[in-house]
Amino acid sequence: VQLQASGGGLVQAGGSLTLSCVVSGGFSEDLAVGWFRQAPGMEREFVVGISRYGGSSSYADFVQGRFTISRENAKNAVYLHMNSLKPDDTAVYYCAADKLARGWPMNLGGIDYWGKGTLVTVSS
Fold it and tell me: Who's near 25: CB < 8 A, 6+ residues apart?
């Protein structure tokens, strides 16, 4: 299984971006999928996750009300819609998948597959 993340870029504070994660080599509905991020000099942290069929999701407190995760299993894709972006949201965002659906929040030790990161830069 491979995860391909895309959609990062430079945006002004208050703006929006949508990240995409496409699953290949397997069926996305077999996986709980989430996003982590890592800012310079900081540890990688959980941002948001969605269950296999989209019935449940979990958000870190710092993105509640601003970010929304969704998935289209027919396209093997998961999306992260980010609104009201802040400079503190600047980080490399990583798509991640848990094949055992270990629960929320997702943690680093429970991730079976990682995608390469996509950089999000929010200017003030």
Answer: 1, 2
Q: Residue 115 has what DSSP assignment?
A: P
How, if at all, do strands 9-12 and 118-123 pair? parallel
Question: Residue 124: helix, strand or coil by DSSP?
Answer: coil
How many residues are listed for the chain in this entry? 124
Partners of 19 in the beta sheet?
80
In the block, residue with structure tokens 């299993």: 73
HSE on the CB side for 27, CA within 13 Å?
5
| pLDDT tens track for 28-72 | 778 999 999 999 999 999 999 999 998 999 999 999 999 999 999
**pLDDT tens-digit readout, 83-120:** 999 999 999 999 999 999 888 999 999 999 999 999 99
Rg of the chain in Å (alpha carbons): 13
DSSP-derived secondary structure for 62-108: GGTTTEEEEEEGGGTEEEEEE-S--GGG-EEEEEEEETT---SS--G
